[in-house]
Write a structure and sequence with these properties.
The chain is an all-alpha fold and 82 residues long. 65% of the residues lie in helices and 0% in strands. The protein starts with a helix and ends with a helix. One of its GO terms (cellular component) is plasma membrane.
């Protein structure tokens, strides 16, 4: 049980840091840090570029992993038998 809890804690820490970084990379109203990596070069007609779409998908997947790590850690903590 302790190995699962430790693994979930490490996963939660890593995904929290990566989520913060990915959210900061998104293009906001005025550009954002994603401009440095090609996210600012969007296509015409207001659609987002390939880098921004990939960043969106990566952020959603990482947010889901983060969510399940939080839920899993909560369940392990609640039902832990000492």
């Amino acid at each position: 049980m302790q190995i699962i809890e430790f693994t979930l804690q490490v996963l939660l820490g890593l995904t929290s840091l990566l989520l913060t970084l990915l959210i900061l990379l998104h293009k906001g109203r005025g550009g954002g840090l994603s401009d440095m990596f090609g996210g600012g070069m969007s296509q015409a007609m207001g659609s987002s570029g390939l880098a921004e779409r990939n960043l969106n998908v990566l952020t959603v997947i990482l947010a889901l992993v983060w969510f399940f790590a939080v839920v899993g850690l909560g369940l392990v903590t609640k039902f832990q038998v000492l």
